[in-house]
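Changelog note: in this version the structure field was regenerated for every chain. One regenerated record is shown below for reference.
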Amino acid sequence: MTTTNLPDTTPNEPRRPFTLRAALSLMAGISIASVSIYLLCRKNTSRVVRTGIKSLPVVLPLILDRRRDRRPAPAAAPAQHSTFYRIAAYVLPVVLCLALGGLAGWLQRDALTEWYPALLKPAGTPPNLVFPIVWGVIYLLMGISAGRILTAPGGPHYGAMTLWGIQLGVNFLWSILFFVCRSPLLGLIGIVVLDALVMVYIARSYRIRRDAAWMFAPYLAWILYATYLNGWILAANGPGI
């Protein structure tokens, strides 16, 4: 009796590499969400604009579904990363982190001079000069961590990179909630979510490349301290909005 080996009919899904288009799409999504929240927080925003913003959760999925139906099947990723891919995998995340950090600083500049100095703060609050230095180092480590994951063997690792992108968006969102909306309550909610996301990313990336997880350790320590500061300010000054 002879046996025949049946061919494997399981479809293999092609893997999509992390590209400049994906990074720009992520930045565009974060920007749209941040501007929408900013406009909703402003009291003088017109009713038409508010209605348009509230309709985005309904309209955007319909648009994305139509684009997905027209999208051609992606080509399979090469077995080995090219030199350009390896360079872009580190440079693009670092640039994205620094760009979002710069945008957050620009959006919160009025609150830093008009609102934040008048708040009651704990004795251990760092001086304002410390924040851009610390965040600059953290953003650099965050970008390198993403590069380590993107160039890890067996990639692309979509789960870890999805967590990386979401936590970066929530990081930016916290600046909008706390400073632009001037709400310690919304800020505390945002930063607690950020704490959880960063912890999950560290656990996920540790299974891929340990150094990628360790690069998030200073980030986690810093935002846990910021959570304490945010909670203290909320208790001493009230919820804001």
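Spot check on this record: Residues 10 and 83 are 32 Å apart (CA to CA). The two ends are 79 Å apart (CA to CA).
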